[in-house]
Design goal:
Length: about 290
């Protein structure tokens, strides 16, 4: 079984270098690693370091960059593992992916249960993540369950089942909910699972992110777009939208130092106005 790792990166050259270097310590090495940046600065220090790492450039945008990786890999692999540029996998991550996909042919996609996720708490440093995984040996409680979609920070895709699928490039820049859109469609072709056999730590770096205003707009507009497209469950989409708006409204009174809650809330309101006017256009964030 051939397994490739694909990483789209923007604005985090130091972090992505650490992550790529750490992949060399996997118990089961990747058959290839593809890193796609949007500028030379994104991939600074990676070129020429390792023959197993292919460095590419693409137009900016998570969906565009991931599609570039898919086109580059083509039919040269059986499984592609998309990880965020700030995701640190446990050392057995790829070995366990190989076992899962080899002995569970009905599984077309899998995502891990994380030890920690800095995207939902405070950011976690690379050294801390490595120490917790490789020295302390932290693992999440045992769990395996079927799911409706995968978490984009770490998702393994069986390429034979994903033929003809691509990430929706109408979800620009950070591509909010692009993982749900892509893998919800993948789930029509087989079984998606979330399992603690696959684990790691999502550092949740705040660098390289889109602005609060743009993200806030995407939190509403992208969900409305996917609801119309039919690639997110109605209850899931509406709940997620209201949760984000409520969190931004409440926390804008006492915002976290590294999160622009007021910008996000303003973006929520602009998008809600557009939705009420019948203008569902995720790409509008590029003009904000």
């Amino acid at each position: 079984m051939r397994i490739h790792v694909a990483i789209a990166t923007t604005g985090r050259p130091a972090i992505v270098r650490q992550v790529v270097d750490h992949l060399s310590l996997q118990e089961r090495r990747a058959d290839g690693i593809v890193v796609v940046g949007a500028s030379r600065e994104d991939i600074a220090g990676l070129e020429g370091e390792d023959d197993a790492v292919d460095i590419l450039l693409s137009d900016r945008g998570l969906c565009k960059q991931r599609n570039t990786a898919l086109r580059h890999i083509g039919n040269s692999s059986d499984v592609v593992v998309f990880i965020d540029d700030d995701f640190v996998p446990a050392r057995d991550f790829l070995r366990r992916i190989e076992t899962l996909f080899r002995y569970r042919p009905e599984v077309v996609g899998a995502t891990g249960v994380l030890v920690a996720d800095g995207a939902h708490t405070s950011p976690i440093g690379f050294e801390e993540a490595v120490h917790r995984l490789d020295v302390l040996g932290e693992r999440p409680p045992s769990r395996l369950a079927e799911c409706q979609s995968l978490y984009g920070c770490n998702m393994a895709i069986r390429l034979s089942a994903a033929e003809g699928l691509k990430f929706d490039e109408r979800l620009p820049l950070y591509g909010w909910q692009e993982d749900v859109d892509f893998t919800y469609q993948l789930g029509w072709r087989g079984t998606l699972v979330k399992t603690s056999e696959l684990t790691g730590i999502h550092m949740g770096s705040r660098s390289g992110k889109t602005s609060g205003l743009r993200l806030g707009y995407s939190q509403v507009a992208n969900i409305a777009y996917l609801l119309r497209k039919g690639t997110i469950r109605g209850s899931t989409g509406r709940t997620l939208m209201m949760r984000n708006i409520t969190a931004n409204a409440v926390r804008s009174l006492w915002p976290e130092k590294d999160i622009d809650r007021r910008g996000r809330l303003a973006g929520n309101f602009i998008a809600a106005r557009d939705v009420l006017r019948g203008r569902i256009d995720p790409e509008r964030i590029e003009a904000l």
